[in-house]
Amino acid sequence: MSKRAMGHSKTGTLLAMVGAATISLGALAGCEAPDWENPDYVAKMLKDGESAEKSLALENLRKFPEDRYSEVAPALVEIYMAGERDAKDAMSYLVQWRVSEAVDAYIKEMETDAAGYAGAAAEALGILDHRAAVPKMIAALQATDNNERKQGILRGMARMSDPQMVAPMVELLKLDADNFPIALHAYACEILGNIGQENPGAVNEEARDMVVLGMFLSNNTNQNTNRECGLAAQQIGPTMVPHLVKTFNGEHQAVNQLLLKYNQGPDYAFPANQAKLVSAIRLGSMRAPEAVELFMADLKSEKSAPEALSGRQSVSWRLKEGNATDEMILALGDLGNPQARELLEGIVGVEFVNDEWDEITDGLIELQLRQDAATALARLGDRAALPALMEMAKKGVIVDLEKRFVMLAQNGQPGKEEERYQFNWMVAQAYAMLAEAEQRETYQGLIDATDEGGLKEKYKSFLPAFDVAAECGGAGDAAAQAACYGTKVEDENEIVRAKAAYELSRLPAEVASPVVAEALSTQNLETRELLTFAGYRVATPALAEAVGTLLEEEKGRSNDAARRDRNRLKLLHAYALRSSQGSAQAAE
């Protein structure tokens, strides 16, 4: 055969092969040209196509419209449940889509991790609130030794609030935080808190005790679960108070043993009174009425380290005691019980601190405690404290601090007046935050009697508080006043913003709560912190809903200030959710 003839033969064979392939593809597609950009075609191939076409359909699901997920989810479930070669790809879509048609597939994946998505499948079950799966989630959690899978399953459980989860969470909190990921303990507290928010009676005595213990858990990389377990306590509510009081009094043996284990040299950073500090913070954030007498009794006692302590251990105890003392002072203002006024006035004064607390104070600590007592009086809201505040604004002295500035002046290096008289102007600020418009004349007298230029100017900077009090305080009834203060929350002057937040906290909840709920959306986090304080005073279910919406809207923020703000909002949210159930909860 000639070369030309041979070439013609090869060409004919090739054309025949191409033709056969075309006929074959046409037959597979039912004489329909592939159209992978068309959702209808993708859905059809996924449900009815051959194996190769299903694989191509899976590849083209990335752009599939969300409103049609449910249409093709059964086909993906079938591919996964049959263990076909594309099972992993099918599950990868299902765990992203989180559709109810796939719950059986999610359960199987959670139990087997066949496609490597056990955690994501459990989370999908939680998002779908598929509570029928809870027993299987618990079984899967307990069956695996893989801590990554455990955390994935816990993420799913954290989306639901089922009492069946209480006992398994207690067991997680018993795990050694150094030998198991502390994230397990954090999730356990989160889940117990969610259950307690919905059904506080489901969280039993042991679980409540373990939540308190969880506030103290730490690992060898200094990670801890104080925030998660503290929020859980807030969510569970008043039934936590006896456990926290026991801890405050040093009677929670498991906490005591844990602190003893942690309190190692060279820092000795976990002295026994760490229990008092942490429980004081939580009792204050819960606005527990039982804390008033507890804190007042402690603040009236002498502050001295146990004789058995020496060196760094003694120093650590004193620092922790100072921190706890400060937290109790501020909490008495937050709690709002007028019974605390005289005690706080005494702390703002000079004799009480120097006589009783000499061992835990120096000039700077005394300054902190006494100026925070002034802030607490402003938060307390009892205007009978105004004379005591004015007296200290005029002549209050931090003796050790004054000696330091006298020495600096003698050495030719006089300090700034604003720093030297910080106590005076901070007490004056508290006075302005507490005062009504008619106290302006008294306050002006303070300014007129002040010779130091820097201090005089600092006093003047608080005058706008009296202006806004005159304008909004004279606006009409309580509703009109609340509306007026609400317009001041975004004022360019920080004193006006702060005064507005304080006064909103003193108005009836029925008029102030809607204003505070709306004002909380301010992006000024310092103002929002004060509005959060006001929110506790005027808490309602509607305010809780507004805070919940705000938390959802701002979920992506991650800097330190935003995290602190978010934690404050979560605590307020938990408190406000329970605001309409106070009497029922107290009876449980």
UniProtKB/TrEMBL annotation:
Note the Pfam families from the entry.
HEAT_PBS
* Signal peptide (UniProt feature, chain positions): 1-29
PROSITE patterns, per the entry: PROKAR_LIPOPROTEIN (PS51257)
Q: Which UniProt keywords apply?
A: Signal
Protein name, per record: HEAT repeat domain-containing protein
